[in-house]
Amino acid sequence: MNASRPDRAAELDADLVDMMNAVFADYRAAHPPTAPIRRDTDLWAGLDRLGLVRLTGSEQSGGSGASWYAAAELIAAAARNAVRVPLAEHDLLACWLLEKVGAPIALTARTVCVFDETGTATAVPWASTAERIVVIWRHDDTQLLADVDCADLRIIPGSNLIGEPRDTVSADTAALAGTPVRAELVAQLHLKAALVRSIQVCAALDKILELAVEHASARTQFGRPLSRFQAVQQLIADIAAEAALARAATEAALSAAVRSDWAGPNVTFAVAVARSCAGHAASVAVRNAHQVLGAIGTTVEHRLHEYTRAALAWRSEFGSVHHWDEQVTRAALAAGADGLWRLIAD
What we know:
The protein is 55% helix and 12% strand. Helix 5 packs antiparallel against helix 6 and helix 8 packs antiparallel against helix 9. The protein is built from ten helices and nine strands.
């Protein structure tokens, strides 16, 4: 994400942003990627000491009291450096819900999931490496929430395209003691999770663009740099355009959400547009970048795949590209000719 916009700049401390980037860059330099990916407890402890694990939590509950703008920079910094860590799932989703329902929040790593009618949730991020999971389920006409120790849940490990834990979690919900949670909070949970993935995709796209430009500038073919060939220039220009569109849509959605505390009439539409743009941008960026880099871009040693596979994995989580395309279409049709501009501009 880019902190140059006035509303974002007013919310962010430049030294904090620099510190976030430095922490993840230093960690990545000392820790090459491994598979399968697990939560690094030493990194987690270090981030906790810096106040980054509960960055947006209230100070009364042990958080740092920062804004979603700061959280977006933190998430993007991790994604840019290919450091896989469940900061968003813990802080922005699980602990946020606990704070909203007035539940105690101990210093322990969490994620969140919503059970279906059988008491099962699939592709739950980081469940197998968490210590507790905030679970939501429906009982009659009420939605209930519980903060459950992982030892009391059934967890079947799985992973996404880049090896991040995406696990199946199940429980006997009748045996859980739940706290009622408002439907609007559950709706906000889905939107927040979706926007988190859009922020991560945008960070990956920016890195893909950087690697493509770097390669085209350094490599020569037929006696001149690749960047001098018109076809290569066009491929890179398309990556840049798509990445910029995705970033603009994502920042617009983030601004709309922050301004209205996630309750504005156009937040759902803005998040849907962000996810749609980011999803389609990933297709172009991945295809074009691998064309620019050729065979070297497909090797394990080159870092390109760390971002192209990540972009493809994240764009399909918390709603597919097709799902978000449909949401944009339905909202536009419902607004009609008279209301469409207001829907876009508000």
